Amino acid sequence: METDEEILARLNHEEAKQYVGGVVLVAMLMTAGIFGNLHVLYVCVFRMKSSNHRVFILTLATLDFITCVVGMPFILVDLRNPFTFTLVAACKIFRFVNYFICMSSALLLIVIAVDRYTTAIKA
């Protein structure tokens, strides 16, 4: 006879099988995001002259890098343990961080669009 823990582990494994595609996609995006954003940060810090565009790009790359280093590993753990992830505080903190950074990125893109629009009007 199976214990409750064994049943939960088996059900968790069966449920996690359905998310393999998502796990692979997030892992690939995380890897590409880490290397890509490090490259962008290197180029912007050491190769670009100081400007508004440089600050916007650095901020956006930093936010995206934080998402790749902090948020995406959490998503991977969450997808691998759909029934057995029980750290409530960690879940709330990481969800907040993910949503906050995504909203910050979206608002920054709006600021960039407005800046480019006003720059184009002046020219």
From TrEMBL:
<dbReference type="GO" id="GO:0004930">
    <property type="term" value="F:G protein-coupled receptor activity"/>
</dbReference>
<keyword id="KW-0675">Receptor</keyword>
<keyword id="KW-1133">Transmembrane helix</keyword>
<protein>
    <recommendedName>
        <fullName>G-protein coupled receptors family 1 profile domain-containing protein</fullName>
    </recommendedName>
</protein>
<feature type="domain" description="G-protein coupled receptors family 1 profile">
    <location>
        <begin position="36"/>
        <end position="123"/>
    </location>
</feature>
<feature type="transmembrane region" description="Helical">
    <location>
        <begin position="96"/>
        <end position="114"/>
    </location>
</feature>
<keyword id="KW-0812">Transmembrane</keyword>
<feature type="transmembrane region" description="Helical">
    <location>
        <begin position="55"/>
        <end position="76"/>
    </location>
</feature>
<dbReference type="InterPro" id="IPR017452">
    <property type="entry name" value="GPCR_Rhodpsn_7TM"/>
</dbReference>
<feature type="transmembrane region" description="Helical">
    <location>
        <begin position="20"/>
        <end position="43"/>
    </location>
</feature>
<dbReference type="GO" id="GO:0016020">
    <property type="term" value="C:membrane"/>
</dbReference>
<dbReference type="Pfam" id="PF00001">
    <property type="entry name" value="7tm_1"/>
</dbReference>
<dbReference type="InterPro" id="IPR000276">
    <property type="entry name" value="GPCR_Rhodpsn"/>
</dbReference>
<keyword id="KW-0472">Membrane</keyword>
<keyword id="KW-0807">Transducer</keyword>
<keyword id="KW-0297">G-protein coupled receptor</keyword>
